[in-house]
Each structure stands twice: as C-alpha cells, then as structure tokens.
Amino acid sequence: MKRRAFFFDLDGTLAIHNGPVSSADRRALELLREAGQLRILCTGRTTGYLYEPVLALGFDGIVAGAGSHITLGDRLLYRRQVSPALCRRLAEAFLALGQPCIFEGEREMLLLGMEGYAGFDWPVIRSPEDFDRLARGVTVNKLSLFGELRPGAAELLAPDLTLIPNLGYAEAVPAGCCKSDGMRRLLAAVGLAREDSVAFGDSGNDRDMLSFAGIGIAMGNAPEEVKASADFVTGTLVESGVSSALINLGFIHIEE
User: Which residues contact 161 (CB under 8 A, 6 or more apart)?
Assistant: First the structure.
C-alpha cells in the first residue's frame, strides 16, 4: 500500500468526554503504524487540552487548535497565537457581556464564566485583574465561546479571529487557520500530496478537513451537513467507526 497520511479528529471520532480510545481503534492505529503509514491527530483542542491516554498513542504529528499549532514528531512546523493584547480586550469585554469562554493555550487553559468546566481545576478569570495575573506568560492559540453568543461578541473577534460554529459552542481561531490548512502544511512537510490523505471527523470544524482530504470519512454520529462533506460515512464512535472504515476500505487487515 502506498504511503498515506491519516488525519484523525479526537472528540466524537476517537474518544469522548476525555475518555479512552476503544481497543479496536487503538489496534487499528497500531496496524497503520506497523504498515509505515503516518498517523496525525487533527483536533480543535489546543495542546494544553490534550490528555495522556491520547498522547500515549504516539501520533506521528499533531494539528492542534484547529490548525493554529502543528508539530511533526518533536519538530514545530507552524504556530499562531492570539495576541496578549487582544486576549486582554476580549476578556474584559466578555466579562461585561457575560459570555462564557475558554482561553485555550499551549500549556495552560483559562476559564471565563466556566468554573468547574468538565471537572477540570483550571484557573478562573473573574475580573480584568484576574486575567492580568493568570495570563502572564500564557500562549493562547484559540478561544472557545459557549452557549448562544451574546450580542456583539462575534463582532469583537473580527478581523483577527475567525469564528467556527459547532453544536453548543463556537471556536475562535486566528484568521486563516483551519484544520485543512493544517493538513496542507503537514503534507507539504512530509512530501505527500493532498490525494495521499485520509481524514476522519464528526463536527462542524471537520467539514473543511473532510472536503480537503483525498478520502474524507464522516462518523455515523456526525450531523448531516458534516456527512455531506465526506466521501464515506462509517459507524459511530461507540461502534469504533474508525477501525471499521480502515478495515472496510482495505487500509488495514485484521486476522480472524
């Protein structure tokens, strides 16, 4: 089989609620590695939001923060950050608007109006002074805005950030960043063409990735508009749809 790069979304594709990857999907990823294929995690989460059971899978590269931070092994290929000045302005404005938000960093995560989010003990911004203290030295790659956007919130982001809507929240990424751009940069670094890529995803921020890939595969739990962006639809996360698709399309073979 020719060499390809396989790009995997995380939430809703490989795992959910910070849980483990299924044994079937772990085995499938291992078989891809043994076959010499590139395995890339392509997630909206920043590197500061990744967790050990996923990192332990040993991906060859990571497109994080919806394309704002890209690594290949230990090599940093690309990095964009939201400027500290813009983060400060947004924090003050979102506090006034009551707009829940997470500042997602390369190492740290800061909560605004989201105390206790998902059980994490992350620092909470309750005032502009909190932001000044907590965000010192923090590199923010993107923001996630939760719930219905407060009036005026979207306008505060332009033109520096692009809003990517998802179910129940929206991601604000540096203008020009997206998962497909991250794919393009990583493929160029390894000398592979767009046609040599395979992508799996389930959410709104995966639509451009699935359309860009040589083969785009939507999860069975994906909304219809995401499925429409893909070449194939596989089983759900609970059904280990990733491994099913890799087997059914002939990318891996499981001995009975």
Answer: 82, 86, 143, 172, 173, 174, 175
